[in-house]
Amino acid sequence: MEKLIINGGKSLKGSVEINGAKNAAVAILPAAVLASEGKCVIDNIPNIEDVHCLERILSDLGCKVKKLDDNTLEIDATNINSHEACTEDVRRMRASYYFIGALLSRYKEAKVELPGGCPIGVRPIDQHIKGFEALGAEVTIEHGTVNVKAERLLGANIFFDVVTVGATINVMIAATLAEGTTVLENVAKEPHVVDVANFLNSMGADIKGAGTDVIRIKGVKKLKGCNYSVIPDQIEAGTFMIAAAATSGDVTIKNVIPKHLESISAKLIEMGASVEEGDDSIRVKVLKPLKGVNIKTAPYPGFPTDIQQPMCSLLCAVEGRSLITETIWESRHKHVDELKKMGACIKVEGRTAIIDGVDKITGAIVKATDLRAGAAMVIAGLIAKGDTEITSIEHIDRGYPKIEEKFKALGADIRRVVND
């Protein structure tokens, strides 16, 4: 096993390039199985473990997967020989459930083992099932496996009980080859929902309204291969924005869509940081002491749940009291115990973390309890006095390509070592 060691207290300066969006890529790759003719060439894919896991699942299904470079894949799904995804890789990651919608759409049948992912709370697939059943599928769950089957898929009006990114994408994928028109209401509006819709349209789908409250899908007969580039990663960009502010740095974050980052920019400005937007870049610099703020996570365009943990680390070391209320997941404060080891003053009441800023936090041995908690530990380590050791960094590698190299290029004292 490996760990990261950070000697904190260095101000970050320079520029960093953001990779393609993890949350878009992990849905786009399963959706590529819908191409019954031609090849999908997808670039700006992040070189992360979750993507490698999906590559293996695609290969197991019978797709021909060729790596053209570190960030580009060619997927030929014309000769898929199975509608079953029941491997260890499927069980390992949450996003493998997108194969249910993709295989159901193409073959009217799918058998996919229930996936895992980060332990951040109950993550039911009831809204996915509701959507599949509305399209005409019969869904059963036996021995940890989702079995979905339909004689034919027919367009339907579907109103989601809660705003859910996963179900919005999965049912949208399933409806692309359904007969007639499907209308999805109370949908998620996240940038990666729009990106998946754009990818499907590039393959020949007819989807309108992604990014609004209502998505309309007119079923088509077939989809074919295409060339596509994944959008920049909103969450990776936000993490580097917060790291720049936390270290009183001056960092230009390149290859971003500033519109996607407005909720994060607004909070950093409220704290006293300077945020300058370019066409495809954001510069964050700090010239005066920052102050605490209150944050409440919400579906896009609200403050992203995936950014609240890194923001928590920043708020530990600024003046005043801050509140972070998590409205999406009920168990997303597991990083708090790790931050307390470093001297942070945080109390959790229900879904709210009450943070009183301290003069300094100090290095300690801490654990990345999940992907975004891992990012929070990195930021805490960058702030802390002395050495911080972060274990279980396989969680971090699921979403942040070459994280230590990027921070090192900005002036951080960070290294990856084998954990004996």
UniProtKB/TrEMBL annotation:
Q: Which GO terms describe its molecular function?
A: UDP-N-acetylglucosamine 1-carboxyvinyltransferase activity
Q: Where does the UniProt annotation place the signal sequence?
A: none
Q: Could you tell me which residues carry 2-(S-cysteinyl)pyruvic acid O-phosphothioketal?
A: 118
Pathways per UniProt: Cell wall biogenesis; peptidoglycan biosynthesis
Give the main localization category.
cytoplasm
Reactions the enzyme catalyzes: phosphoenolpyruvate + UDP-N-acetyl-alpha-D-glucosamine = UDP-N-acetyl-3-O-(1-carboxyvinyl)-alpha-D-glucosamine + phosphate
What positions does the domain Enolpyruvate transferase occupy?
A: 7-406
Keyword check for Transport: no
Q: Say if the entry is tagged with keyword Repressor.
A: no
Q: Which residues bind UDP-N-acetyl-alpha-D-glucosamine?
A: 94, 123-127, 306, 328
UniProt record, GO biological process: cell division; cell wall organization; peptidoglycan biosynthetic process; regulation of cell shape; UDP-N-acetylgalactosamine biosynthetic process
List GO terms (cellular component aspect). Answer: cytoplasm
Q: Where does phosphoenolpyruvate bind?
A: 22-23
- Pfam families membership: EPSP_synthase
Q: Which UniProt keywords apply?
A: Cell cycle, Cell division, Cell shape, Cell wall biogenesis/degradation, Cytoplasm, Peptidoglycan synthesis, Pyruvate, Transferase
Query: Where does the record say this protein resides?
Result: Cytoplasm
Q: What InterPro entries does the record point to?
A: Enolpyruvate_Tfrase_dom (IPR001986), Enolpyruvate_Tfrase_sf (IPR036968), MurA_subfamily (IPR050068), RNA3'P_cycl/enolpyr_Trfase_a/b (IPR013792), UDP_GlcNAc_COvinyl_MurA (IPR005750)
Please give the PANTHER family that the UniProt record associates with this protein: UDP-N-ACETYLGLUCOSAMINE 1-CARBOXYVINYLTRANSFERASE (PTHR43783), UDP-N-ACETYLGLUCOSAMINE 1-CARBOXYVINYLTRANSFERASE 2 (PTHR43783:SF2)
Q: What is the role of this chain?
A: Cell wall formation. Adds enolpyruvyl to UDP-N-acetylglucosamine.
Its family? Belongs to the EPSP synthase family. MurA subfamily.
Name of the protein in question: UDP-N-acetylglucosamine 1-carboxyvinyltransferase
Q: Which organism is it from?
A: Clostridium fallax
- What taxonomic lineage is listed for the species of origin? Bacteria, Bacillati, Bacillota, Clostridia, Eubacteriales
Q: What's the gene? A: murA
